[in-house]
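Journal club side-thread
Mid-discussion, someone asked how the predicted structure for our own chain would compare to the paper's figures. Pasting it here so we can look after the session.
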Amino acid sequence: MAVENDRQAPAWSGDDLIAGGPVAAGLKSAGADIDWLQALGLLRDPFDAADAAFFPGAGRQQLLDQLLHQCQFSASALVVLGEAGAGKSALRRELLSHLAADDDICTIDVPAIYDADRLLAQIVAGFGLEAADSASRGQLLAQIRHFCQSGEEGSLALLLVENAHHLDDQLLSALLSLLQGQEDSIRPLHLVLFGDPTLALRLDNFGIVDVLVHDLLLEPLDREEVGEYLDFCLQQAGYSGEALFTERDLDTLWRQSQGLPGRLNPLARRLLIEAAAPASEGRPRLPLAHVVAVTVLAGVLIMALFYGGDSDESSADTAAVATAPAPAAAVAAADAAARQLPPDPPPAPSGPVAGAAPPALENLPSPAAGDGRPTEAAAAAAEREVAAAVQATPAAPPAAFESAPAPPPPPAAAPPPAWSADEAALMASEESAYTLQLLAAASEDSVRQFIRRQAGAVPLRMFTTRRAGKNWYVVVHGNFPSAASARSAIGGLPAALREAGPWPRSMLSVQTEIASFHRN
């Protein structure tokens, strides 16, 4: 269990282990006497998570800005949720790098198996306090609370808990209770919990009075963001050449990593090592389909040369075969072999359907010798045979239009989006405007309770969005012409709303989330 009081000290966690940890710059590719970093012109391993720069894309920068604001102005619990490998550790390190040097900050990483009393004692020690070995859990909690209430005004007391989902409900509830009764504190405690998405559901069930919980979701990268992330990592490592990853590489990396940077890093590193290897040891330089097609064409040429004669005509035929393009059947077979699919069957022979046409003319009696005209007897016999064939031919089915059903009616027009009254008001606002976000949580009940408690104070609006496949409920206040005017309005809010840590948010981003939710 790691406790740090110095934000510069490294603190590796599960995300770092998934990403592979530090990799030496002199790492050799398997079976090749070559330094892959030097071969690609890289200054360092671009996918070493412990040494990587913070990726600001995929909403990471916006999430960091929100954390920085609420860590300083919110008295609520901030919960950063994400799957293992989503980048929670990278976000935590970037957050710490933006805080003041004189802030009191304690960071702990909770293992899967821990001792609750010892963990509280380590939090006390992380804030630079001394605790007796025989101190009880209640005494340790009281010591932490007193420390926060007796600090200097303007300073920050921040507790960061990594892998908070490992905490049992009793200890998790005890940490949240530290946030109660901080209205008159000179230096309120700020609590940031990092954990997997199951943590939000557990916190929603606690219902601790006067404690707000903000859920902040660190979502996986989509297909386009995977490419942006890889380019960013390569640029930070000093690469400035052509693209190293093909579109097929990006599709494979996105699918196998599920958009999680911690899983993406080792996969991308392996592809770079293969790219730096010699051609005989790396991936094929030609796609398999091209290799098969070339093989088939070579076989056609060899057969043409083998069967060619000595005469000028045979030589000309051979030259014609050698210069002509491959037959369509050969090309189709080559493409099918490349895709591991059977070739298309040859087309069925064309001609009339058996039994559906009158007898062929060659079956009629031959004309009599002489002037070339058939005799009367032969003509009569021919007419009888034709009449018998026509009677034996089955009747043609009725015309298609006589039995075809009536065409279906055109589909009805899609109904307009089912916006709530709050969402309709937000969608009608100017895109350039700003609002103040007060709360975001996965529990609709907790959000509505928060709104009811503020009834009559200031007008609040709620809208629904989607995060990680689940509904997300967001509370906002006001409509301001600029971010600066929204920020200046925070001081005029009731104390309970100021403690929620409101932060300016563009109306365009709100409208985009509302439209996306109802479109899906």
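Post-session note: The chain has a mean pLDDT of 72.
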